[in-house]
Amino acid sequence: MTWAKGVGTQWFPTLSATASPGKPARVINTSSIASEINGPDINYNTLKDSPARKKMGVNKLYYQSKFANVVFSNELFRRYGDQGIVSVALNPGNLRSGLQRHLTGITKWIIESVCHPTPFGALTQLWAGTSDEGAKFGGKYLIPWARMGTNPSTDAQTEKALWTWLEEQVAQI
């Protein structure tokens, strides 16, 4: 790992040390159905304060951030899966949470009518993190409620590019 000393690397030795044959260490990256809306690219001009960021708007920024969670998860597994680190991304489900707090009128009613109680969000995470079969989920994308889904990120170049960008950001610290 080439991240700057003291930044981003504290977790890796512990994670790596806890992995053992037949019992990998697991990293569960929470994403959202929004990751499936974003599309196959990340606009790096919007990841820092910029006119492009302001123009993109909060919804599209959210979609992109959830897609980036999946992209990061896949690259983490690609780089360290052979060292016993299982990284999986998941959509916890449409949940009643603070995300809906600013909605009003018919939009609020429609969105809340398809949402589930917040505790349901833990089901897929627990399945990935504690089940025997979850040890084989590296690089996968899970959907509610404890099911395998179609991974919204399938481009290794995009995944490597995000990892490189992240390394560049912490190298400056």
From TrEMBL:
Entry's Gene Ontology molecular function annotations: oxidoreductase activity
Taxonomic superkingdom: Eukaryota
Keywords noted in UniProt: NADP, Oxidoreductase
InterPro entries reported for this sequence: NAD(P)-bd_dom_sf
Record has Membrane as a keyword: no
Gene3D superfamilies in the record: NAD(P)-binding Rossmann-like Domain
Assigned protein family: Belongs to the short-chain dehydrogenases/reductases (SDR) family.
Protein name listed in UniProt: NAD(P)-binding protein
Organism: Mycena albidolilacea
